[in-house]
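[Q] Does anyone have a clean structure-token version of this?
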Amino acid sequence: MFELSQIRCFVTAAEELHFGRAAARLNMTQPPLSRQIQVLERILGVPLFERTSRSVRLTPAGRVFLPEARRIVWLAESATLAARKVAQGDAGRIGIGFTAVSGYSFLPQIVAQSRARLPNIELDLREMVSSQQVEALQTGLIDIGFLRQPLDRHEFESERVVSEALIAALPTGDIRLTTPELTLKAFDGSPLIMYSREGASYFHNMLMSLFSEVDVRPDYVQQVTQIHSMLGLVRAGLGVAIVPHTAMSLQFSGVHYRNIVTVPEKPVELYMVWRRANTNPALVAVRELCSEVAPKTV
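[A] Here you go.
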């Protein structure tokens, strides 16, 4: 079987049709170049050049072999470049887990910036609840997770990328729309669409704690997991809801928003989490991009 160095010598000599110039291009002397081509001809069993004291020409076999030889050289160079890009973190694949809420605003920005700045890195996006993300991080199914709380475990590292306010979502005609800002007291006894304890425990526990602190008891008319479902029920007039600020990007017609002034200023947080032992070369580049894109506060 021939070697890549022999193919490279043949292609260069075929392009120059002069062994001296071909040797100079390859930074070698002419005798080793001639030997490489002679070995290649013996392996193929056909002459590739017609050589005289005055000229060098390709044989019919050489003319047929040249485009295929060029292709072999190109494939080898492309494979080498691809391998180097992966090793340097400029190419590859990154698995990203995210909750539905982070997919409303923050994640689309990451995707857009990644396509522009890291075009050779493929993002494999997987919508998962937090518990699924933790398992996927451990097994290597994803490289980065976007979770509502940092993982207090040695094998993980985390960085807060977003903190945002809670706001009230009200249907058209709600009397509270006459007030520019609301307090939690405005929801006492009011029909409220609540987060499910099982599927949205982060928001469920947060609101239960906030209501308890100010002795507010809403009327929980429905419990759901996804914020877009919650806003749909608000639009239908079933009740009101308390949602993170980024939910406004969903732009539900018939749903209006008001600030809530009696809760911590930015209580809703999102963390980027990754496994310390992750050796994916592309991880650093994607992490840095996420840190730059992150609005930090909303």
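[Q] Thanks! Anything notable?
[A] The two ends are 63 Å apart (CA to CA).
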